[in-house]
Design a protein that fits this description.
The chain is an alpha+beta fold. 35% of the residues lie in helices and 19% in strands. The longest helix is centred in the C-terminal third of the chain and has 16 residues, at 181-196.
Length: 197
């Protein structure tokens, strides 16, 4: 049955599929009977109150959490098998301000994969990083230590790290909250153009 759904999902251009998903934290239900189908090229926003389960929903899509009931598929596969298709920017990320890593290096970590952890970065990797930094307006700060950035600049760096993966699916968890209006516009335009490709 799953193989039939997988081939059907790929044929229909389905990017994400949630089938009667439930999720509990302990005894507390967070999501109840969520079904959703998102096609390739769709641009979707999830709106709700704090504590309403929005971040939990994204973590289920990423395979960081497992549903209590129901199923999640990404491009016709389990989220764990589909991680190479996804870019993710979390809601809150804190950095050790003294950790010796700069913007460029953070963005380049987005080009790492499990199968190529020890290989040097290629020319393509570096070109993708430059493009991602330009997209979010951070190219001039590429050598700046991450601990010296403002909250908005750190967030734009994380968006560039997600973009450098060339994701088929980009999941943003309130990623623009600390980003200035011009940065928000630039990132939103890029995201929408990706959805049309």
């Amino acid at each position: 049955m799953r193989n039939h759904r997988n081939s059907e999902a790929r044929a229909n251009g389905e990017a994400l599929h949630l089938d009667h998903v439930w999720f509990n934290y302990g005894e507390t239900p967070v999501l109840e009977d969520v079904s959703l189908s998102i096609q390739k090229g769709d641009f979707l926003g999830v709106i709700g109150p704090n504590g309403g389960g929005k971040s939990t929903l994204l973590k289920l899509m990423l395979g960081l959490l497992q549903p209590s009931r129901g199923g999640v598929e990404v491009c016709g596969q389990s989220p764990e098998q589909s991680s190479q298709f996804m870019g993710y920017v979390p809601q809150h990320t804190t950095f050790d301000r003294h950790f010796p890593i700069n913007v460029w290096d953070v963005v380049m970590t987005g080009r790492l994969s499990r199968s190529h952890l020890l290989r040097p970065y290629s020319g393509t990797d570096k070109a993708k990083a430059k493009e991602a930094l330009a997209t979010v307006g951070m190219e001039a700060l590429s050598r700046r230590p991450i601990g010296e950035l403002s909250g908005g600049q750190q967030q734009r760096t994380l968006i560039a790290r997600a973009l450098v993966r060339d994701p088929s699916i980009l999941l943003l968890d309130e990623a623009m909250a600390a980003v200035d209006p011009s940065g928000q516009e630039r990132c939103t335009c890029y995201s929408m153009s990706c959805g049309r490709e």
